[in-house]
Amino acid sequence: MAWRGNISKSLKELRILLCQSSPASASARTFVEKNYRDLKSLNPKFPFMIRECTGIQPQLWARYDMGVERCVNLDGMSESQILKSLEDLVKAGGATKA
């Protein structure tokens, strides 16, 4: 999982939008609880933003160079699927810089 250390090289910002209590956001909350500390320690100056809002559908937003953004809807995804989506977003950012 070397891509975890390349988040700050591939992206400019990562936002996770979730609801504090809805079942739709349960796996997103679990993902944050289990992975935030590790991701932040590997990318200490990178802006990981967790945005909580009642009733919102869980989403993962990645911002790249030149203000380009990509969104992944996390509703119905498992924690491992969310991790795979993040990996895909990071690798897509690295591909644009190659």
Percentage of helical residues? 40-55%
Q: Give Rg in angstroms.
A: 13 Å
What is the overall silhouette?
A: globular
Strand content: 15-25%
The CATH architecture name reads: 3-Layer(aba) Sandwich
Count of domain modules = 1
Pfam families: L51_S25_CI-B8 (PF05047)
Family: Belongs to the complex I NDUFA2 subunit family.
Disulfide bonds: 19-53
Subcellular location: Mitochondrion inner membrane
What distinguishing features does this structure have?
3 helices; electron transport; mitochondrion; single chain; transport; Glutaredoxin; alpha+beta; 4-stranded mixed β-sheet; respiratory chain
Question: What would you say this structure looks like, in words?
Answer:
With 98 residues, this protein is α+β, with helices and mostly antiparallel strands. The protein has one domain (6-93): Glutaredoxin. Helices cover 41% and strands 21% of the residues. The protein is built from three helices and four strands, in the order αβαβββα. The chain has a four-stranded mixed sheet, covered by helices on one side. Helix 2 crosses helix 3 (79-97).
How would you summarize the topology of this molecule?
Blueprint: H1 7-10, E1 13-18, H2 26-42, E2 48-52, E3 59-63, E4 69-73, H3 79-97
Parallel strand pairs: 1-2
Antiparallel strand pairs: 1-3, 3-4
Helix pairs in contact: 2-3
Disulfide bonds: 19-53
Domain Ribosomal protein/NADH dehydrogenase: 20-93
Pfam families: L51_S25_CI-B8 (PF05047)
Compact overview of the structure:
This protein is 41% helix and 21% strand. It is α+β, with helices and mostly antiparallel strands and 98 residues long. It has one domain (6-93): 3-Layer(aba) Sandwich (Glutaredoxin).
